[in-house]
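Narrative summary of target 7.
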Amino acid sequence: MLTEYTRYADAQAQFSSEKLWELFDGDRRTLNIAHECIDRHVAGERTAVIVAQAGGGEEVLSFRQIAEDSARFAHYLKARGVGAGDRVAIMLEPSRAFYMAVFGAMKTGAIAVPLFTLFGPDGVRLRIDDCKPSLFVTNAEKAPMVAGSVVADDAFIADLERFEPRFTPNTRADDMAIFQYTSGTTRELPEAVKHTHRAVVTLMVAALYGTGIRPGDRFFCPSSPAWGHGLWHGTLAPLALGVTIGAYAGRFDAERLLKALQDHRFTNLSAAATHYRMVRVSGAAPRYRSYLEKLSFTGEPIDGETAAFAKAHFGHPVCSMYGTTEIGVILASYPGAADFVVKPGSLGKPVPGCRVEVHDAQGKPCPPGVTGELKVWRRNSWIATKDLGRTDADGYFFHAGRADDVIISAGWTMSAVEIEDAILKHADVREAAAIGVPDALRGQIVKAFVVSPRAGDERFAQEIQDLVRDRLSQHEYPRLVAFVPELPKTPAGKVNRKVLREREQRETV
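Modeled conformation, tokenized:
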């Protein structure tokens, strides 16, 4: 089976889409995500999930407990008339109630719609109006946002004991299973990405080669399961392989993560670049022992200093996993593959069976070293990722920012990502973002927004400008530097440059 191979060379030689199906009980006609992730792993009372709570507590759930909880919830849904194709919105932190509701909904053939717990009333209402759920499951605090909400507290779970702890799913592989909203502002609702039960099969490409999961791993992902990374890569993929997972509930704290990794001897960590950065700046890492053997990140590029810290502290390189909610993972650095050289700053190479190229404005492949748009070959056509990138002579891919994050100044094309990475090498900089702002002479100039515990002044700005000049080139430095207490973020934790651009536009009108 594909799980028996760990080398990069074997991934290229042994992979086929047919072999992915060997990892599952279901087939191309009949498949259910809840069965594949939970029910078929109940033997032996194995631990499925360890929830590390921000306040210091923990919740440990076995495959059997989640199987029985979700079965009872599925019967409850049936009793309420909720069935195939109906939407069940779930706004909960990782918890017994969350896993009960997500897998219970999918067992019935209903569609699970996980929602970010920090959404306010406007964000919730936009998504509820869009997906029109038959049921909204949340906690007591959030329940007033939606009339008729089900509060999934201890009393509710206890009441479900009246239902049978067994439920046999009967879904087709092509039935809808999950609606997922990508991270956006409440003013601009992204369209829901709709996934069938079959999606769990193709998900295994990312699991095997993006996060390097193999049976026997103990896998932790601190990202919220409301987003693609936390749900698909952090929850469904490892559970489908029978792997014990760790999840994080509540406001992220780097030291709390380090303690959970140590106490439960997790061997595989996949997190956002921001999480690794927060661990680095916390200064707490030396106080905790690490058992990690594989590390990966996604969501946005990781700065060079944080990548170097992760390798030095954990003893292994942190591996990039690149893709989008819509197209899945297409580039990876193959964590755990002893024969794959992880290049600093690289997105890695295409996952097996995937064709990726960098194209110019005319749709022609760019030679190594030339920046263009990353595209993936799907269904006999090239699909644009809306990200810029380049390759090197060895076939590695490098990220150059979103297509709308390019800054063109006096004819020079510059990458916001590369400028930010250079700024982050300053010892006093905690976070940085770069955008292009209008300039009468050059068209655009670079403006950097910097978060630092050090007071911002003219000398500090000059240090940053000199650092970028030295590391990139004489023309790529930020001509304007603004010191700010924080940067706007998307709900998934990425720096939201679009908000910065909009603010600048309003201020210059």
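The mean pLDDT is 92.
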